[in-house]
Protein backbone atom coordinates (compact mmCIF):
# COMPACT_ATOMS: atom_id res chain seq x y z
CA UNK A 1 0.00 0.00 0.00
CA UNK A 2 1.56 3.30 -1.07
CA UNK A 3 1.90 6.24 1.25
CA UNK A 4 0.99 9.69 -0.08
CA UNK A 5 3.62 12.32 0.69
CA UNK A 6 1.45 15.40 1.23
CA UNK A 7 4.48 17.63 1.79
CA UNK A 8 5.85 16.65 -1.59
CA UNK A 9 2.48 17.37 -3.20
CA UNK A 10 2.31 20.79 -1.55
CA UNK A 11 5.81 21.55 -2.83
CA UNK A 12 4.80 20.98 -6.45
CA UNK A 13 4.34 24.09 -8.58
CA UNK A 14 0.77 25.34 -8.43
CA UNK A 15 -1.12 25.33 -11.72
CA UNK A 16 -2.41 28.85 -12.22
CA UNK A 17 -6.18 29.22 -12.39
CA UNK A 18 -5.94 32.69 -13.90
CA UNK A 19 -7.53 33.49 -17.23
CA UNK A 20 -7.30 36.53 -19.50
CA UNK A 21 -10.00 38.32 -17.52
CA UNK A 22 -7.98 38.01 -14.31
CA UNK A 23 -4.91 39.57 -15.89
CA UNK A 24 -7.02 42.32 -17.40
CA UNK A 25 -8.41 43.04 -13.92
CA UNK A 26 -4.85 43.52 -12.68
CA UNK A 27 -4.51 46.42 -15.12
CA UNK A 28 -7.29 48.37 -13.36
CA UNK A 29 -9.17 49.09 -16.61
CA UNK A 30 -11.35 51.85 -15.12
CA UNK A 31 -8.31 53.79 -13.97
CA UNK A 32 -6.60 53.03 -17.28
CA UNK A 33 -9.49 54.54 -19.24
CA UNK A 34 -9.03 57.84 -17.39
CA UNK A 35 -5.27 57.71 -17.98
CA UNK A 36 -5.73 57.06 -21.70
CA UNK A 37 -8.22 59.89 -22.08
CA UNK A 38 -6.20 62.52 -20.23
CA UNK A 39 -3.04 61.45 -22.06
CA UNK A 40 -4.87 61.69 -25.38
CA UNK A 41 -5.82 65.27 -24.56
CA UNK A 42 -2.23 66.10 -23.66
CA UNK A 43 -1.11 64.67 -26.99
CA UNK A 44 -3.74 66.43 -29.10
CA UNK A 45 -3.29 69.90 -27.63
CA UNK A 46 0.48 69.74 -28.16
CA UNK A 47 1.74 72.02 -30.93
CA UNK A 48 2.84 70.70 -34.30
CA UNK A 49 1.97 67.53 -36.16
CA UNK A 50 2.44 64.12 -34.59
CA UNK A 51 2.67 61.12 -36.92
CA UNK A 52 -0.26 58.73 -36.29
CA UNK A 53 2.09 55.84 -35.58
CA UNK A 54 3.98 57.90 -32.99
CA UNK A 55 0.70 59.05 -31.45
CA UNK A 56 -0.65 55.49 -31.23
CA UNK A 57 2.63 54.17 -29.81
CA UNK A 58 2.72 56.93 -27.20
CA UNK A 59 -0.83 56.35 -25.97
CA UNK A 60 -0.35 52.57 -25.98
CA UNK A 61 2.83 52.81 -23.91
CA UNK A 62 1.24 55.20 -21.42
CA UNK A 63 -1.76 52.87 -21.12
CA UNK A 64 0.44 49.81 -20.61
CA UNK A 65 2.53 51.72 -18.07
CA UNK A 66 -0.65 52.59 -16.17
CA UNK A 67 -1.73 48.95 -16.28
CA UNK A 68 1.69 47.87 -15.03
CA UNK A 69 1.35 50.28 -12.10
CA UNK A 70 -2.05 48.80 -11.30
CA UNK A 71 -0.70 45.24 -11.37
CA UNK A 72 2.22 46.09 -9.08
CA UNK A 73 -0.14 47.98 -6.77
CA UNK A 74 -2.40 44.92 -6.48
CA UNK A 75 0.60 42.62 -5.98
CA UNK A 76 1.75 44.68 -2.99
CA UNK A 77 -1.73 45.27 -1.53
CA UNK A 78 -3.13 41.76 -1.71
CA UNK A 79 -3.30 41.58 2.07
CA UNK A 80 -5.37 44.73 2.53
CA UNK A 81 -7.48 44.10 -0.59
CA UNK A 82 -8.71 40.90 1.06
CA UNK A 83 -10.01 42.93 4.03
CA UNK A 84 -12.02 45.47 2.03
CA UNK A 85 -15.40 44.67 0.47
CA UNK A 86 -14.64 46.99 -2.49
CA UNK A 87 -11.49 45.04 -3.42
CA UNK A 88 -12.09 41.53 -2.05
CA UNK A 89 -13.04 40.21 -5.50
CA UNK A 90 -9.76 41.21 -7.11
CA UNK A 91 -7.72 38.30 -8.58
CA UNK A 92 -5.14 38.04 -5.78
CA UNK A 93 -7.54 37.97 -2.79
CA UNK A 94 -9.64 35.38 -4.66
CA UNK A 95 -6.56 33.19 -5.17
CA UNK A 96 -6.74 33.38 -8.96
CA UNK A 97 -3.30 34.98 -9.28
CA UNK A 98 -0.37 34.83 -6.86
CA UNK A 99 1.53 37.85 -5.64
CA UNK A 100 4.61 36.64 -7.54
CA UNK A 101 2.72 36.27 -10.79
CA UNK A 102 1.23 39.75 -10.50
CA UNK A 103 4.64 41.22 -9.66
CA UNK A 104 6.30 39.56 -12.65
CA UNK A 105 3.45 40.66 -14.92
CA UNK A 106 3.70 44.26 -13.72
CA UNK A 107 7.50 44.41 -14.00
CA UNK A 108 7.47 43.02 -17.55
CA UNK A 109 4.82 45.51 -18.65
CA UNK A 110 6.72 48.35 -16.97
CA UNK A 111 9.97 47.45 -18.72
CA UNK A 112 8.46 47.11 -22.18
CA UNK A 113 6.27 50.23 -21.92
CA UNK A 114 9.18 52.44 -20.88
CA UNK A 115 11.67 50.94 -23.32
CA UNK A 116 9.24 51.08 -26.22
CA UNK A 117 8.30 54.70 -25.53
CA UNK A 118 11.93 55.70 -25.13
CA UNK A 119 13.17 53.82 -28.20
CA UNK A 120 10.37 54.57 -30.65
CA UNK A 121 9.28 58.04 -29.47
CA UNK A 122 11.82 59.85 -27.26
CA UNK A 123 13.73 59.16 -24.07
CA UNK A 124 12.44 62.22 -22.24
CA UNK A 125 8.90 60.83 -22.45
CA UNK A 126 10.22 57.37 -21.56
CA UNK A 127 11.94 58.75 -18.45
CA UNK A 128 8.76 60.57 -17.39
CA UNK A 129 6.76 57.36 -17.79
CA UNK A 130 9.33 55.44 -15.71
CA UNK A 131 9.12 58.12 -13.01
CA UNK A 132 5.31 57.94 -13.06
CA UNK A 133 5.34 54.17 -12.52
CA UNK A 134 7.99 54.48 -9.80
CA UNK A 135 6.07 57.23 -8.02
CA UNK A 136 2.80 55.31 -8.02
CA UNK A 137 4.25 51.95 -7.00
CA UNK A 138 7.07 52.90 -4.61
CA UNK A 139 6.23 56.36 -3.26
CA UNK A 140 2.44 56.02 -3.11
CA UNK A 141 1.67 52.29 -2.79
CA UNK A 142 4.62 51.10 -0.68
CA UNK A 143 5.12 54.21 1.44
CA UNK A 144 2.48 56.93 1.55
CA UNK A 145 -0.72 54.85 1.49
CA UNK A 146 0.01 53.00 4.73
CA UNK A 147 1.85 55.85 6.43
CA UNK A 148 -0.01 59.15 6.12
CA UNK A 149 -3.52 60.53 5.73
CA UNK A 150 -2.10 62.77 2.99
CA UNK A 151 -1.48 59.70 0.83
CA UNK A 152 -4.02 60.73 -1.79
CA UNK A 153 -2.81 64.34 -1.91
CA UNK A 154 0.85 63.52 -2.56
CA UNK A 155 0.20 60.27 -4.43
CA UNK A 156 -2.19 62.09 -6.76
CA UNK A 157 0.84 63.39 -8.64
CA UNK A 158 1.22 59.99 -10.31
CA UNK A 159 -2.31 60.08 -11.71
CA UNK A 160 -1.79 63.65 -12.90
CA UNK A 161 1.31 62.90 -14.99
CA UNK A 162 -0.12 61.06 -18.07
CA UNK A 163 -0.99 64.23 -20.05
CA UNK A 164 2.49 65.55 -19.26
CA UNK A 165 4.06 62.33 -20.54
CA UNK A 166 1.93 62.55 -23.70
CA UNK A 167 2.93 66.17 -24.32
CA UNK A 168 6.57 65.18 -23.89
CA UNK A 169 6.07 62.34 -26.35
CA UNK A 170 4.70 64.80 -28.92
CA UNK A 171 7.20 67.62 -28.39
CA UNK A 172 10.20 66.23 -26.51
CA UNK A 173 9.81 69.08 -24.02
CA UNK A 174 7.47 70.60 -21.43
CA UNK A 175 5.34 73.76 -21.43
CA UNK A 176 2.74 75.52 -19.31
CA UNK A 177 -0.27 73.79 -20.91
CA UNK A 178 0.53 70.23 -19.75
CA UNK A 179 1.51 71.59 -16.33
CA UNK A 180 -1.93 73.19 -16.05
CA UNK A 181 -3.51 69.83 -16.92
CA UNK A 182 -1.31 68.27 -14.24
CA UNK A 183 -2.53 70.77 -11.64
CA UNK A 184 -6.17 70.22 -12.56
CA UNK A 185 -5.92 66.45 -12.05
CA UNK A 186 -3.73 66.89 -8.96
CA UNK A 187 -6.30 69.07 -7.16
CA UNK A 188 -9.21 67.00 -8.48
CA UNK A 189 -7.87 63.82 -6.90
CA UNK A 190 -8.41 64.60 -3.16
CA UNK A 191 -12.11 65.57 -3.32
CA UNK A 192 -12.75 62.66 -5.70
CA UNK A 193 -11.12 59.99 -3.52
CA UNK A 194 -12.10 61.47 -0.17
CA UNK A 195 -15.73 61.34 -1.28
CA UNK A 196 -15.20 57.62 -1.92
CA UNK A 197 -13.37 57.24 1.41
CA UNK A 198 -16.27 58.82 3.30
CA UNK A 199 -18.75 56.11 2.35
CA UNK A 200 -16.03 53.41 2.44
CA UNK A 201 -14.63 54.54 5.77
CA UNK A 202 -15.26 51.22 7.53
CA UNK A 203 -13.41 49.37 4.77
CA UNK A 204 -10.30 51.50 5.19
CA UNK A 205 -10.46 51.30 8.97
CA UNK A 206 -10.70 47.50 8.85
CA UNK A 207 -7.69 47.34 6.52
CA UNK A 208 -5.66 49.74 8.66
CA UNK A 209 -5.27 52.34 5.91
CA UNK A 210 -4.91 55.88 7.36
CA UNK A 211 -7.31 57.57 4.98
CA UNK A 212 -8.37 61.05 6.09
CA UNK A 213 -11.91 60.05 7.26
CA UNK A 214 -10.36 57.33 9.46
CA UNK A 215 -7.59 59.48 10.94
CA UNK A 216 -9.16 62.96 11.14
CA UNK A 217 -12.84 62.02 11.05
CA UNK A 218 -15.68 62.65 8.57
CA UNK A 219 -16.23 66.31 9.47
CA UNK A 220 -12.60 67.28 8.89
CA UNK A 221 -12.70 65.37 5.61
CA UNK A 222 -15.79 67.25 4.48
CA UNK A 223 -14.02 70.56 5.14
CA UNK A 224 -10.95 69.42 3.20
CA UNK A 225 -13.15 68.33 0.29
CA UNK A 226 -14.72 71.78 0.18
CA UNK A 227 -11.37 73.59 0.37
CA UNK A 228 -9.74 71.47 -2.33
CA UNK A 229 -12.81 71.89 -4.54
CA UNK A 230 -12.53 75.68 -4.28
CA UNK A 231 -8.87 75.51 -5.36
CA UNK A 232 -9.72 73.02 -8.13
CA UNK A 233 -12.45 75.22 -9.62
CA UNK A 234 -10.15 78.26 -9.58
CA UNK A 235 -7.23 76.42 -11.20
CA UNK A 236 -9.47 74.77 -13.80
CA UNK A 237 -10.87 78.16 -14.85
CA UNK A 238 -7.53 80.01 -14.81
CA UNK A 239 -6.21 78.84 -18.24
CA UNK A 240 -8.97 80.83 -19.99
CA UNK A 241 -8.12 84.34 -18.70
CA UNK A 242 -4.43 83.46 -18.93
CA UNK A 243 -4.92 82.86 -22.65
CA UNK A 244 -3.87 79.21 -22.81
CA UNK A 245 -7.34 77.80 -23.62
CA UNK A 246 -10.28 79.43 -25.38
CA UNK A 247 -13.74 80.59 -24.30
CA UNK A 248 -15.41 77.23 -25.01
CA UNK A 249 -13.21 75.67 -22.37
CA UNK A 250 -13.53 78.66 -20.03
CA UNK A 251 -17.33 78.70 -19.99
CA UNK A 252 -17.51 74.92 -19.66
CA UNK A 253 -15.05 74.92 -16.76
CA UNK A 254 -17.13 77.53 -14.92
CA UNK A 255 -20.35 75.56 -15.44
CA UNK A 256 -18.80 72.27 -14.36
CA UNK A 257 -17.06 74.03 -11.49
CA UNK A 258 -20.38 75.36 -10.25
CA UNK A 259 -21.67 71.78 -10.14
CA UNK A 260 -18.60 70.58 -8.22
CA UNK A 261 -18.91 73.46 -5.76
CA UNK A 262 -22.59 72.84 -5.13
CA UNK A 263 -22.05 69.14 -4.49
CA UNK A 264 -19.03 69.82 -2.25
CA UNK A 265 -21.16 72.23 -0.22
CA UNK A 266 -23.87 69.56 0.04
CA UNK A 267 -21.28 67.10 1.36
CA UNK A 268 -20.16 69.69 3.91
CA UNK A 269 -23.74 70.47 4.99
CA UNK A 270 -25.16 66.96 5.32
CA UNK A 271 -23.28 65.00 7.95
CA UNK A 272 -25.65 62.29 9.14
CA UNK A 273 -27.89 59.58 7.70
CA UNK A 274 -28.97 58.89 4.16
CA UNK A 275 -28.62 62.51 3.04
CA UNK A 276 -24.92 62.44 3.90
CA UNK A 277 -24.37 59.17 2.06
CA UNK A 278 -26.31 60.42 -0.94
CA UNK A 279 -24.29 63.65 -1.05
CA UNK A 280 -20.91 61.89 -0.99
CA UNK A 281 -21.94 59.36 -3.63
CA UNK A 282 -23.24 62.12 -5.89
CA UNK A 283 -20.01 64.10 -5.54
CA UNK A 284 -17.92 61.01 -6.29
CA UNK A 285 -19.95 60.21 -9.42
CA UNK A 286 -20.06 63.81 -10.64
CA UNK A 287 -16.32 64.28 -10.11
CA UNK A 288 -15.66 61.60 -12.75
CA UNK A 289 -18.01 63.32 -15.18
CA UNK A 290 -16.39 66.66 -14.31
CA UNK A 291 -12.90 65.58 -15.31
CA UNK A 292 -13.99 63.76 -18.47
CA UNK A 293 -16.15 66.69 -19.61
CA UNK A 294 -13.41 69.22 -18.87
CA UNK A 295 -10.83 67.33 -20.91
CA UNK A 296 -13.34 66.50 -23.66
CA UNK A 297 -13.89 70.25 -24.06
CA UNK A 298 -10.18 70.67 -24.77
CA UNK A 299 -10.45 68.07 -27.53
CA UNK A 300 -13.43 70.00 -28.89
CA UNK A 301 -11.32 73.15 -28.96
CA UNK A 302 -8.66 71.33 -30.97
CA UNK A 303 -11.31 70.28 -33.51
CA UNK A 304 -12.73 73.84 -33.68
CA UNK A 305 -9.27 75.26 -34.29
CA UNK A 306 -8.56 72.68 -37.01
CA UNK A 307 -11.84 73.42 -38.78
CA UNK A 308 -11.24 77.18 -38.52
CA UNK A 309 -7.76 76.75 -40.02
CA UNK A 310 -9.16 74.70 -42.91
CA UNK A 311 -11.90 77.22 -43.59
CA UNK A 312 -9.55 80.15 -43.27
TrEMBL record:
PROSITE patterns the UniProt entry points to: UBIA (PS00943)
Subcellular location per the Swiss-Prot or TrEMBL entry: Cell membrane
Name of the protein in question: Protoheme IX farnesyltransferase
Keywords: Cell membrane, Heme biosynthesis, Membrane, Transferase, Transmembrane, Transmembrane helix
Pathway membership: Porphyrin-containing compound metabolism; heme O biosynthesis; heme O from protoheme: step 1/1
One Pfam family matching this protein: UbiA
GO CC terms, sorted: plasma membrane
Function in brief: Converts heme B (protoheme IX) to heme O by substitution of the vinyl group on carbon 2 of heme B porphyrin ring with a hydroxyethyl farnesyl side group.
Keyword Transferase annotated: yes
Record-annotated membrane-spanning stretches: 31-48, 54-76, 97-117, 123-144, 151-173, 179-199, 220-241, 247-268, 288-311
Keyword 4Fe-4S in record: no
Gene: ctaB
Organism classification: Bacteria, Pseudomonadati, Pseudomonadota, Alphaproteobacteria, Hyphomicrobiales
Membrane topology annotation: Multi-pass membrane protein
Further remarks about this protein from its record: Carbon 2 of the heme B porphyrin ring is defined according to the Fischer nomenclature.
Species assigned in the record: Bradyrhizobium retamae
EC annotation from Swiss-Prot or TrEMBL: 2.5.1.141
Highest taxon of source: Bacteria
GO molecular function: protoheme IX farnesyltransferase activity
Reaction(s) the record says it catalyses: heme b + (2E,6E)-farnesyl diphosphate + H2O = Fe(II)-heme o + diphosphate
Amino acid sequence: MSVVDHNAIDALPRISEADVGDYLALLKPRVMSLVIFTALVGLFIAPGHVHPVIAFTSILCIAVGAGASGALNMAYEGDIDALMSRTANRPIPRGRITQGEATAFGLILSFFSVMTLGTLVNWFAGALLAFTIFFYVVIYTMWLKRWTAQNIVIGGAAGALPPVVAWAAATGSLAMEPLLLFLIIFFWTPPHFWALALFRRDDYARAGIPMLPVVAGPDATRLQILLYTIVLVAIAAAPWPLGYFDAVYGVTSLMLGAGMMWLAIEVYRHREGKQAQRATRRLFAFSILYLFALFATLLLEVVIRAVAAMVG
